[in-house]
Specification:
The protein is mostly helical. It has two domains: 2-208, MFS general substrate transporter like domains (Growth Hormone, Chain: A), CATH 1.20.1250; 214-400, Up-down Bundle (Growth Hormone, Chain: A). It is 80% helix and 0% strand. It is globular.
């Protein structure tokens, strides 16, 4: 039962990543077909981000009412319907409408799944599951490429991914009875008594416990610190994904093809790093993974900034930053029940998801505005400042919460 549900959750994390790269991969063709400027892609992503933030904040109440299994199945079903809706949209305003259920479904499933895994599975699975998200995010551009070259057009790619999501929705619906039968695990990864001062009831009793209002959750000592750390991490990740290639070309004089390849290696570094981190995550612990991750990203940022004649160190620095980024997100999520208690974890993880999406949405355009004023040379220093903020806030939490 444990293994069957875990396998379904692994597939669900691949599915979570699949839609995330579709808009970016298909937009060069989509905006021509829809007759809108290139910049209109930002409108779609902002609508999706807004829906994701709202549903993340509401996920605690909804998950306690219906359970993680139901919320996950319904949310994936919403994204499936939205993707099929994208595939039949012939006007830009239609994409905007379908972006609403897309964002709402993505935020709810992200918060519900992450909390469920944090409560029920060891740290190694949290890292491997997020690595599988990277697999899904890497596959979808190939699906778009196949659709465009085989005559299916961009709408065909959305239809393919939508059908994959629909199949997963069916699997999740069938698996709902399993979700309440897997025991909560202790922070060490073993079932049984926890050393965090909270009970180790089954999933169903945790989900049925009283609602934790947003204001009350924000007042829990250390919550604001971890929200700031999460914001900083997601801000640096999204900024690096969007702007690293431009920095390498315009400031370091790297050939565009080489810069694009190493920008892709940043993402591959995150995916591979999470897979590798899974082998020692239980032994190292979440706090060491977060601390080591921020330090490694900072080293990578400094390597990018060094004004050397050779480009090799800067290129390697980008890969190092990707590897360092790998364990931070999963470790922050997995440590939430330990830091704040199982009763509060769903509420706080929902807020963390909202903070993450806010950082990912706001940081890249903020950096774009700053670089337009100062110059693109500031990119590695922007990354290092975010690393310092994330490190400072996570260490502040560690001082507050003694385990």
């Amino acid at each position: 039962m444990y293994s069957i549900l875990l396998a379904i959750i692994y597939v669900a994390f691949v599915s979570l990543g699949l839609p995330d790269s579709l808009v970016g991969a298909g937009w060069p063709v989509m905006h021509h077909d829809l007759g809108v400027p290139v910049a209109f892609a930002g409108i779609i992503t902002m609508i999706i981000a807004g829906g994701t933030i709202l549903s993340s904040l509401a996920s605690e109440r909804v998950t306690r009412r219906f359970g993680a299994g139901v919320v996950t199945a319904v949310s994936v079903g919403m994204t499936a319907a939205a993707l099929v809706g994208f595939s039949v949209s012939g006007e830009f305003w239609m994409l905007c409408l379908w972006a609403i259920p897309f964002g709402l479904g993505a935020g709810a499933v992200d918060a519900a799944l992450n909390n469920y895994v944090a409560l029920h599975y060891a740290a190694r699975h949290m890292n491997w599951l997020h690595s599988f998200w990277g697999v899904g995010a890497s596959i979808s551009p190939f699906i778009m490429s196949y659709a465009l070259t085989s005559g299916l057009e961009w709408s065909g790619a959305y239809r393919i991914v939508g059908l994959i999501q629909a199949v997963l929705t069916f699997l999740l619906l069938v698996s709902i009875p399993l979700w309440g039968k897997v025991n909560v695990v202790a922070p060490s990864g073993r079932s049984g008594a926890s050393d965090d001062g909270y009970d180790t009831a089954t999933a169903s009793s945790v989900e049925r416990s009283g609602h934790v209002p947003l204001v009350r959750a924000l007042r829990i000592p250390g919550v604001l610190s971890i929200l700031a750390a999460f914001f900083a991490y997601c801000a640096l990740e999204s900024t690096a994904i969007l702007w690293s290639s431009t920095y390498l070309v315009s400031v370091r004089g790297v050939a565009p093809a080489t810069a694009a390849a190493f920008a892709a290696l940043f993402l591959l570094g995150i995916t591979a790093g999470r897979f590798l981190a899974g082998f020692f995550a239980d032994r190292a612990g979440d706090r060491q993974l977060i601390r080591g991750g921020f330090v490694t990203v900072g080293i990578g940022g400094l390597m990018l900034a060094l004004p050397l004649e050779t480009h090799a160190l800067a290129l390697v620095g980008l890969v190092v930053a990707g590897l360092g980024s790998a364990p931070i997100y999963p470790a922050i999520i997995h440590s939430t029940p330990v830091n704040f208690g199982r009763r509060n974890s769903q509420a706080i993880i929902g807020i963390q998801m909202a903070s993450a999406y806010t950082g990912s949405t706001l940081a890249p355009p903020l950096f774009g505005a700053i670089s337009a004023w100062t110059g693109m040379w500031i990119f590695p220093f922007f990354i290092v400042v975010l690393v310092a903020l994330g490190m400072l806030m996570s260490e502040r939490l560690n001082r507050r919460v003694r385990i």
